[in-house]
Every structure is written in structure tokens, then in C-alpha cells.
Amino acid sequence: MKNSDITPVKWPVLDFTEMQDTIETLHQWIQILGKIRLKSMPWQNHSWHTTFYITSTGYSTNPIPYEGCIFQIDLDFKKHQLIIKCSETEALSMDLYPRTVADFYTELFDKLSSLGINIRIHPKPNEIEPAIPFAENIINKAYDPDTANKLWRAMLRTNEVFSKFRSDFIGKASPVHLFWGAFDLAVTRFSGKKAPLHPGGMPNMSLKVMQEAYSQEVSSAGFWPGSKDSPTPVYYSYAYPADKGFGEQKVLPKEAFYNADMGEFFLKYEDVQTSENPEKTIMDFLQTTYEAAAITSGWDRASLEKHLEARD
To answer: What is the pLDDT of residues 154-192, one digit of tens each?
Structure first.
């Protein structure tokens, strides 16, 4: 197959009011998977050992070492299955369909146990209120295959743009990864300078974890599908610590805006999806909001950016 034979994935329409129930259930499911990865992986800076990655079919934990073997858990939004792969056994699968978090939790750990993978996790979600124990959660039980597929496809297209944006930075930068705490796809750039202790404030989140995650000065951007309290899928960008002039900077596209209460720039997904060139629209947002952080906080851009280095 030639590259010209591949039909690009379209940017799907995301309506949070129609997607809310499935998103809330998926969020609980990936919290369970994320905690399995958290308990199994050696600690990495900024909690990078806990994250998921976008794949050709959905989300993946990527390989996880466990007592001399490797296992991996994938969510497939084309076949609508959870797939557990292990280096020492045949793969096992679970169908994704409308089912309670409690039912999902029980079957998943039964499957893992049958493979000889016995892991205990903290049995409550993080960054979610109320934090109902997974084994008791019979409230979240929606799963619409089309919704799950559309959300993954939006992240698939976003992942490509984020990856290109990351490539222009030669300083320390995170992978493009999916955090299960807030359910956001993110990429972070670091100035190389230490940051003041973070005050914390996320529900059901350790202050120590937050302070380690933000121990260095950052410019971070991401995509978030929304919540019942903020029912709009958005792209965001923030700096920590942020200079007082950060929010006063001019950014692109014209639809982007600064929220003083949140201390972040936002761009609605709808404005991207309906734009003439969604990829450029996101890239403009990423680049100009990063520049807002780098300029106002005095980053050494010449030593951190590929295109600036090439001019010397």
C-alpha cells in the first residue's frame, strides 16, 4: 500500500452533551488501567510511568514489566475490546459494552489473575469527585461504541499535531501521552529551571505527587474532552509558574482566549474541527501560547528550540 492510498482520518464532531455518559464511564475504566500501570512500573519523573499512549486502534498502557514477563493492556475502539497481552501466555480479551464500573473492575482482575498477574491497586479514582470505590460503582455504566470511537479519532489526529510540535524542541520535553487522572492528552516543555513548590488543589491527589510533577518550570498544552461542570471539549495551554504578563500575550488563532480564573489559554475543539485547516489551527495555538510562556518567563529559547539553534 502506498501512502497516497491511505484515507486520512476525519476530524469528528464532538458533542459533549451526547457523549457525557460514555466519557464518564471510560474515564473510570482508564483510571483502573492507569493504576495497574502505576503499581507495576518503576517510578519515573513527573509520573510519566503511569500514562497511556494513542495507538492505531485506541489507547495502550504500552509494555509493563512484571515478575520476569511483560504484559500490556489495550483498549480497542474499532473492535470494542479490552485486550491483555502477555509475553508468557496467550492474549485475553474483554468486550466493551454498557456495563458498570464494578462489573468491569471485577472481570478485569479475574482475567489478570488467570494469567498469573496479581496486582493490588488503590481502589478509588483520583481527580474525580465523588471518588466512589471501583468495586462499588454501579452508577457509571454507559458505553456507546460510536462515541468511544469518535473520541479516540479526535485524539488520534491531535496526537499527530502534538508530536510534530514536540519535535521542534530540543530541551527536555515529555512524550505525547494520555493522563488518566484528568483524561487529557498532553505534551509539556521544560525550561530547565526549578519551579516553586506547587500548592496542590486537585481532588483526591497527593500533594507530594503534584509537587514532584511541577518541580520544574513548564509550558504545557493538551486536549481535554470536557466534564459535566465544563461541558466543552477544548485545547488548553498554561505555564507554571506563570509570569503576570502571560495571559496578556497575543495568541492564535483569533478564537483562542485566556481564562483568568484558570490561568490558562483555551481553544474550543469545535473551532478546530470546523476550521479550514485544523492541523494549522492547533499548531498556531501551541506555538503562540508556548511563546507567551517562554517570552514572559525569560526562557533561553536559543538553546531550547531547534529552529532558533539552526539560525546560529
So the answer is: 999 999 999 999 998 999 999 999 999 999 999 999 999
Question: Parallel, antiparallel, or unpaired: how do β-strands 69-76 and 58-60 relate?
Answer: antiparallel
Q: How far apart are CA 75 and CA 60, in angstroms?
A: 6
Residues 57 and 300: their CA atoms lie apart, in Å, by 39
pLDDT (tens digit, 9 = 90+) per residue, 232-272? 999 999 999 999 999 999 999 999 999 999 999 999 999 99
Q: What torsion, rounded to 10 degrees, do the Cα atoms 229, 232, 147, 122 define?
A: -40
Burial category of 260 from C-beta neighbours within 10 Å (exposed 0-12, middle 13-18, buried 19 and up): exposed
How far is 25 from 146, CA to CA, in rounded Å?
Answer: 14
Q: Which of 120, 136, 152 is the last residue of a domain?
A: 136
The reported pLDDT for the residue numbered 312 is 45
My answer on whether 228 and 288 are in the same domain is yes
Would residue 146 count as lying in a domain? no
Ordered alpha helix ranges (H), 251-277: 269-273
Q: Which residues span the domain enclosing 273?
A: 167-311
Domain co-membership, 95 together with 212: no
The predicted structure's pLDDT at residue 86: 96
Neighbours of 207 (CB within 10 A): 13
